[in-house]
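Below sits my pick:
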Amino acid sequence: MEARLSPQRPSGLDRNKLRLLGLIIAAFGMLGRGILQNRVLGMTSGADLAALLESSADAMNAATAAIILWVIEGTAVPIFTLLTVDGFQRTASVKNYLFRLLLLAVVSEVPFHFALTGRLLNPSPRNPVFGLVLVVVMLYLLRYYDGNTVKHVFIRILVLFTACLWAGIGQVEYGVPMVLMAFFLYTLRQRHTMALFAASAAALVCTVGNPLFMFAPFGFLLAHFYNGEEGRASPRLLQYALYPVLLLLIGLAGVLLF
């Protein structure tokens, strides 16, 4: 049997609780960007937002709040990356798991742009669930080419590079960090603590492209308490529907309030 990333513990956060916690954190980030940044301040980028820190008191307070919420959002990325790696390991059918994630990514695309910009479609970026789809494809290939031969190591590195390239070309939000973190979580899955440290280091490297991702490694502090249990049973449809529904609610709040 393949070694599992998540250790079995008598206590801690089960899968459902950790997923819900990640959704709440992600919602804070979307509120900060979709409402405070884009609706209240009318800013379209983090650089524009940072420039407001030297503006009037009201604008400075709103910009500060938006930046804090954006930083908090980054901590949800390690949570969903770890849950996806664990889900890949526990699923009975990788094909069905990949299909469900791909369907969620497609369904979430319009709500994502609606929550972020108030428009139904936007050229970029793609919603982060597409990053999880890339993660599952990468993990499948890593499993297929598992081994310590020079050929297999070279192929695994090539798979990692290709996944990062597709995340960049597709402009998938948090796509490259997800791919990098998942690679180390899966490769070092037999050494749980080392896997979390390596993935945290990968997240820190990604701050080069996005300084607001600086606190993402703190997400692994929460993920460290994941006990590997599924938790109280809940309908699968509900589990997958929560994210797009949450995005729609944030988008509607932005339209109605502003």
User: Anything to note?
Assistant: The first helix runs from residue 15 to 40. The radius of gyration is 18 Å.
